[in-house]
Amino acid sequence: MKQLHKQFSDEEVKQYLKWYEDRVMTKSEVLDLLGIKDSRFYALLAKYRNRPKEFSVAYNRVKATRHLPPKVVKQIRRELETERGFITNPNMPIMFYNYSAIRDAVYEDTGHNLSAQTVINYAKRWGLYLERPKRKAHIREVLTDSVGMLLQHDASIHQWSPYVFRPDGKPLKWSLITTLDDHSRKMLYADLRKMRNRFKFSTNTVGISIIVRLWMGLWSDFSTLSLTFDLSSMARV
Predict the structure, then answer these.
(1) Alpha-carbon span 151 to 235, nearest angstrom
(2) Alpha-carbon distance 136 to 202, whole Å?
(3) Which terminus of the chain has fewer Cβ atoms in its 10 Å neighbourhood, N or C?
(4) At 187, is the secondary structure helix, strand, or coil?
(5) Distance of alpha carbon 224 from its chain centroid, rounded?
């Protein structure tokens, strides 16, 4: 139903209804102008005829706006503040709030359904909102003609969990080693290690190289293709 009070003033609607009563305008013209259906038109017309001086299209809420129970609001704030701790932790690769995850966590703890937008509204109210910057359009340039011609092997070290620490109380960091195929962008390998290891990084690269060589050997079209890896340049440790 169109909200007339946001589109037209009381005086405007009254004038259109008066013109209809005076047969200056037809019903179809009023319907098109106000963007309403027959049932709404006749309801407004009856209201206008009964009390023309007090006629108004202002929206009067019958029921109070739904409020969340205090325990749910408290849980939303607790989850937001927990994530703020993750974001401000320089050892963790987290830069933004995950409002959908917070919504799910609140539901698991309280059993109360709510939307991610509700969480965002409370986050803005409490100063716990971070807007994600709009990403620039990225056109991926594929450097290869087929799968397996170029593999991207890399490692990054972070505190991947906020709940793990070393015996001395310092954050426990792990290295995530991954291998991506340039053509398909599929992840061929992933391994999470407690510490960065040059030998492990290099042997993983060799292992993936052997697997890809065996796979490509099954296809005659690739029989002349040779794969080489420069471990010294790829092992960025």
Answers:
(1) 13
(2) 34
(3) N
(4) strand
(5) 45
Cα end-to-end span (Å), the chain: 62
Using DSSP, state whether 219 is helix, strand or coil: coil
Using alpha carbons only, how large is the chain's radius of gyration in Å? 32
Q: Are 195 and 175 in contact (CB under 8 A)?
A: yes
pLDDT, tens digit, for every residue of 18-42?
999 999 999 999 999 888 889 889 9
Show the DSSP H helices in 22-98 as ranges.
Answer: 27-34, 38-50, 70-88
Give which of 128, 125, 144 is closest to 212, Cα–Cα: 144
pLDDT digits (tens, 9 = 90+) for 173-199: 878 888 878 777 788 778 877 755 554
CB under 8 A, 24+ apart: contacts of 25-32: none
Question: Considering only CA atoms, which of 82, 84, 71, 74 is closest in space to residue 122?
Answer: 74
Q: Identify residue 207 by its one-letter amino acid code.
A: G
Cα angle 73-75-79, degrees, rounded to a multiple of 5: 120
The count of residues in the chain is 237
The answer to whether 10 touches 51, Cβ cutoff 8 Å, is no
- Which residue type does 15 have? Q
Classified as helix, coil or strand, 153 is strand
Entry pTM: 0.44
Q: Which residues have a Cβ under 8 Å from the Cβ of 73 and sit 6 or more positions away? A: 122
Nearest C-alpha neighbor of 72 from the set 114, 13, 37 = 114
